[in-house]
Amino acid sequence: MKEVFSWLKAIVVALVIAFVIRTFIFVPVIVEGESMMPTLQNADRMIVSKISNYVGELDRGDIIVFHATESKDYIKRVIAIPGDTLEYRDDTLYLNGEAVEEPYLEDFKAQMNGFPLTENFTLEQVTGETVVPEGSYFVMGDNRQNSKDSREIGFVPKEDVVGKTNFVFWPLGDFGTVQE
């Protein structure tokens, strides 16, 4: 009987530790679709760090997972943070009036044979706002022509953010951190 109790105690402790880790520290996620190509591939498996929700703020370029609907999470890149103005013109991102490089898009832009990867728009045209409001983020997929993102769904509220991700653990050929 002592041995059974010892095993039960070990199992309960393991379950509590697993619950705490999954609830507060990290969770695995599977990339669904092609909206983050070429950075992430369909079916990539990643680790999402929830620690970023408790410590510090998200920054431009971070890849995040957020609740897009009650039953669906999206993976996108933070393009603009609270207080930013935003414009895309001639396939170039302008934040607060300054051109910003997006090195993670260079390979994809080269494949476009001179056609723009990102169509021209301003923040006001797609959201009706002139700046990103407090507590919200403007996000986009790296595959700009095939991404349902803030251009369609609007701003992502901070409370909908599950966490930040940049580590692929499967398939093994893609194992490691991704470019931010």
UniProtKB/TrEMBL annotation:
User: CDD domains, alphabetically?
Assistant: S26_SPase_I
Q: Which family does it belong to?
A: Belongs to the peptidase S26 family.
Note the topology in the membrane. Single-pass type II membrane protein
- Which organism is this entry from? Exiguobacterium mexicanum
Q: Which reaction does it catalyse?
A: Cleavage of hydrophobic, N-terminal signal or leader sequences from secreted and periplasmic proteins
Q: SUPFAM superfamilies in the record, alphabetically?
A: LexA/Signal peptidase
The compartments listed are:
Cell membrane; Membrane
Q: Would the keyword Transcription regulation turn up in this protein's UniProt record?
A: no
Single GO MF descriptor: signal peptidase activity
Which class of enzymes does this protein belong to?
hydrolase
Record's keyword terms, sorted: Hydrolase, Membrane, Protease, Transmembrane, Transmembrane helix
EC number annotated for this UniProt entry: 3.4.21.89
Ranges annotated as spanning the membrane: 6-31
* Protein name as it appears in the record: Signal peptidase I
Pfam families noted in UniProt: Peptidase_S26
Question: Peptidase S26 domain: from which residue to which, for each copy?
Answer: 5-170
